[in-house]
Amino acid sequence: MDKGRGAEANRYSLDGVDATLWRKLISSPDQLRQRVVLALSEIFVVSMNGLPIAWPQFATAGYVDMLEERCFGSFRALIEGVTLSPAMGVYLAMRGNRKEDLKSGRQPDENYAREVMQLFTIGLNQLNADGTPKMVGGKTVDTYTLQQITDLARVFTGWDFDVDSSDVDGLDFSYMKRPMRQNASRFSTGEKKVLDTVIPATADGAAAMKVALDTLAAHPNVGPFIGRQLIQRLVASNPSPAYVQRVAAVFDNNGKGVRGDMRAVIKAILLDTEARTRSTAPGGGKLREPVQRMIQWARTVGLSSPGDLWAVGDTSNPSSRLGQSPMRSGSVFNFFRPGYVPPNSQLGTNNVTAPEFQLCNESTVAGYLNYMQGLVGNGVGDMKPDYTADLALVADAPALVRRQALLMGGGDISEATITTIATAVATIKADTDTNKLNRVKASWLMMLAAPEYQVQK
After folding, report:
1. Are the C-beta atoms of residues 182 and 205 closer than 8 Å to each other?
2. Among 114, 106, 195, 208, which Cα is nearest to 153's?
3. Are 269 and 247 in contact (CB under 8 A)?
4. Alpha helices (runs of H) in 219-318, residue ranges in sequence order
5. What pTM was computed for the model?
6. What average pLDDT does this structure show over 34-63?
7. Is 139 helix (H, G, I), strand (E, B) or coil?
8. What is the distance between the terminal CA atoms of the chain, rounded to a whole angstrom?
């Protein structure tokens, strides 16, 4: 149901998108699927801020639904879903892309052709199976040339929304749920190429795209390139080459001769020894994204919305909110780059990739804590935390903090930190219901602020 958001007045509105995203992320029972969808949305990036079209709210929702439906299927089906999504078609200008016109000098738009290679499949450099760059003469080797971008752009022509011709008023937004369709009159004629594979002139738009996506999905870079980014999003910012290679091997073959089995890849990532063993290395683990911290806390305290409003809204503001909000990246390069190394830091000195630190600065540290203080204290709208389990332990400050540490840190919070928080909490009297609640809220806020919690080991 669109809750009335399909009315004419909402044709160019994003109203309701944030609410439905938060509802899914915080309350949906398929928690792993939601976690993987969030990860995929940060690799195959579409931002609702970059959809200047009618029905952007349904374009965004349709894209997230597609990721949900395909996240545990084949990579080949996933990349086709991404490519033909109306939202992606708009965001990276593939929708309405037309064949070349010699008279006017028009050439096909190269945006999607570039990004589908650079960001979504093979990356900029040829990789070894463990994700390290192949080196020739001390230099990296490009995976494609500028000419190959131009060649591939001709494949991505002729696609547009699958609009019902009977919808003269443009009020049927259901096409945002359907893949784009091919318009043969706008498709480039003649022979085409994807990398070194020739696509014959006889191939129509759908056939040409199939060859292109088949070729890219079969490239040896995809396993280590996509596998490493999924490890970064789910487990560790700076995974070892051996970890990447083990995951890439599963991408190449799930054990039954199937390539690109995303279910098997996710399983391999989460059950790997490096994922199941607490890292003691200075560069081990990952900084939890602000959005992930908020979602984990919300799920832990049973945050719900009785009125189904989920009025969290846009949390992008870095000084007063999280500095990050689902599906609201500033560009196709996500909130942070997978290869980001924090400058002027110990991580930087040791060349440790730590993408999430690109969001971490004086403003966002304070903004996150101020925002979480408000959430912990008051909830938002009709969303109120349930502190029943905390209040049962409120008289025993160490027990209260230890429970929260286990739920949030999974064993990563040291006794020293637990003692520090518990000592502070114990200074708050527990003689009235108000003071008891203040103890609980203070404990939660300090736990959310603790570096040992924020860094997932």
Report:
1. yes
2. 114
3. yes
4. 222-234, 241-252, 262-271, 273-276, 290-300
5. 0.96
6. 98
7. strand
8. 40
